[in-house]
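Re: weekly structure request thread

Next one in the queue (404 aa):
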Amino acid sequence: MNGSVVPLKQRPGSRRPRGALPSVGDRRGSVLVLAAALLIVIFGLAAFALDVGFIALTKTQMQTASDASSLAACTELTNGLGLQPALTTPQVVAVAGYAAKSVASANPNGGLDDTYLDVSRDVEYGQTVWDPSAQEWVKNWGVSPYNMVRVTVHRDTLSSLENMKGDRPLDTFFAGTMGIKNVGLQTDATAALLPGVGVSIPTGSSLTADILPITLDIQSWQALMAGSGNDNYKYTPLTGAVSSGSDGVKEIDLYPYGVNTLPPGNRGTVDLGNPNNSTTDLKRQILYGLNAEDLSWFGGELRTDQGALLINGDTGISAAIKAELEQIKGKPRLIPLFSAVSGPGNNAVYTVVKFVPIRIMYVKLTGSNKQVIVQPATYVSSVVIRGGTSVTNESYFTRPKLIE
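Done, posted below.
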């Protein structure tokens, strides 16, 4: 030997000297372990995201079913409003419940082809009005006549797991591995026919407001609502037909014979639009209602909750509009009520304080004893302005609207 030191070869499995770097094979093994752990986390998060997305989708579908069902049920409430409702309260509840259930069944949710409703549990009725001071809806559940309905859709009823009803909790896909086999969901929606304080039509809109250009003094109307008047004509709600006979609802004559408590004036037609309107305009308004151009003369709306309206008088009810009044017999319309009038004939100015719903029952504008007989009705329209007023037998309403 030449005196040099030759290191001993490291035995297999012996300890790596301190400070030595791990071999390539060791590093690869560590990365594989870390990657496997990360894949487990990623797959877990993906599975969790899938369940969360499915839950969110199902709840959206349930809310759609709640909204649509409450609006469908609310539409049927019209039949229970007014002095002469088409249906009794129990009948209204039955018809509205059927409408809610039918619409719900047409909406899928959470893998089910239809949405389940237990009508006796999931559909509630009541009365609501807007409180302008509190800026909120005041809801009185169970109070009739109903103008409000709430529909609740369930996917949270544990007892349904046995009989497999559609309100059982929603099964999860992957959350079951963490002990969450299902989740409970619930949605609800409230719709209402809201009492109105006037009508509004936007500029350029093709909508119309069914207001007759014929006015009546409020004293005569109040006497009618208190029970005064005759009952010589019959309205059949289910068919819309008008005939001679009694239906339990008193009637009043719109023809201008004058009122002793008011100054002389033309208790007849009024200018609901251009003050220089013609008989042709009156005929159009009677048949088809007021249009956007008519309401533009009043700023696009006619409403009485912000003070009385001063409206010009016209020449009065005449035989020229008889045919048009005959054509709308039995159909609901609004008329303005005035508290005072000044000036005669075409120069009359009416102080209009409210609108009320009526239907025409009889028209005679030729010969002697001219008459335009009307009775209170129920009026619902998309152009009605909802307001802070109570629900009464002389209320008129918006179309069904979601309020929650």
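The radius of gyration is 36 Å. The helical segments are 24-76, 89-105, 119-122, 160-163, 218-225, 279-288, 292-296, 322-327.
Next request, please.
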